[in-house]
UniProtKB/TrEMBL annotation:
<dbReference type="InterPro" id="IPR036944">
    <property type="entry name" value="PPIase_FKBP_N_sf"/>
</dbReference>
<dbReference type="GO" id="GO:0006457">
    <property type="term" value="P:protein folding"/>
</dbReference>
<dbReference type="Pfam" id="PF00254">
    <property type="entry name" value="FKBP_C"/>
</dbReference>
<comment type="similarity">
    <text>Belongs to the FKBP-type PPIase family.</text>
</comment>
<dbReference type="GO" id="GO:0003755">
    <property type="term" value="F:peptidyl-prolyl cis-trans isomerase activity"/>
</dbReference>
<dbReference type="InterPro" id="IPR001179">
    <property type="entry name" value="PPIase_FKBP_dom"/>
</dbReference>
<keyword id="KW-0732">Signal</keyword>
<feature type="domain" description="PPIase FKBP-type">
    <location>
        <begin position="119"/>
        <end position="205"/>
    </location>
</feature>
<keyword id="KW-0697">Rotamase</keyword>
<dbReference type="Pfam" id="PF01346">
    <property type="entry name" value="FKBP_N"/>
</dbReference>
<keyword id="KW-0413">Isomerase</keyword>
<dbReference type="InterPro" id="IPR000774">
    <property type="entry name" value="PPIase_FKBP_N"/>
</dbReference>
<dbReference type="InterPro" id="IPR046357">
    <property type="entry name" value="PPIase_dom_sf"/>
</dbReference>
<protein>
    <recommendedName>
        <fullName>Peptidyl-prolyl cis-trans isomerase</fullName>
        <ecNumber>5.2.1.8</ecNumber>
    </recommendedName>
</protein>
Length: 205
């Protein structure tokens, strides 16, 4: 029979465990053993002798760290290769222009207004996806245009906006070097991700 948490003390204690479990689940390593975690927690809380020496703990932590770094590097290589292959194929399509920086764009609507400069502030609508089509941000879906300085966004946007006229709508294919680089952005945009944006330049403010 499962334990009943029917007092504030028990509920708060259970909540602490939940929070710790969520933290572990958000960044686990292969082979993580929750029973061992619970044993270690109880040992420390009750100030009992550790079942594992400090030297062994240090060695184990270093070994797991190296494994996680290696796995992360392999994942990054795969993401980079996927993006590079996508861009190489995309560059061959009719209507796609590739700039010296590696930015690719496709003109959906020409526009006929002024062009912003790096110091301009603009109003835009945009729709951002990963190359697999996953949407990570969209002012269209929010129903609210976004305003920002041309020089205060990712490099791919800064470059493209200065080529666009007010009223234009372009589709941008942004290599990771011109997007969020090796850091990524939030949970949705992994490090080294190539991104796709539909960008509509509404106005220069």
């Amino acid at each position: 029979m499962s334990k009943t948490y029917n007092t504030s003390e028990l509920q708060a204690s259970y909540g602490i465990g939940l929070q710790m479990g969520e933290q572990l689940a958000s960044n686990p390593f292969e082979g993580l053993d929750i029973d061992a975690v619970q044993d270690g927690l109880a040992t420390a809380f009750h100030q009992l002798p550790s079942a594992v020496s400090n030297d062994d703990l240090r060695t184990a932590f270093n070994a797991i760290h190296e494994k996680m770094q290696a796995a992360k590097a392999e994942q990054s290589k795969a993401v980079i290769a996927e993006g590079e292959n996508f861009l190489a194929d995309n560059a061959k399509r009719d209507g796609v222009t590739v700039t010296d920086s590696g930015l690719q764009y496709e003109v959906l609507n020409e526009g006929n207004g002024d062009k912003p400069v790096a110091s301009s502030t603009v109003r835009t609508h945009y729709h951002g996806t990963l190359i697999d089509g996953t949407v990570f941000d969209s002012s269209y879906e929010r129903g609210q245009p976004a305003e920002f300085p041309v020089g205060g966004v990712i490099k791919g946007w800064t470059e493209a906006l200065q080529l666009m006229q007010v009223g234009a709508k372009w589709r941008l294919y942004v290599p990771y070097q011109l997007a969020y680089g090796e850091q990524g952005a939030g949970a949705a945009i992994k490090p080294f991700s190539t991104l796709i944006f539909d960008v509509e330049l509404l106005d220069i403010l």
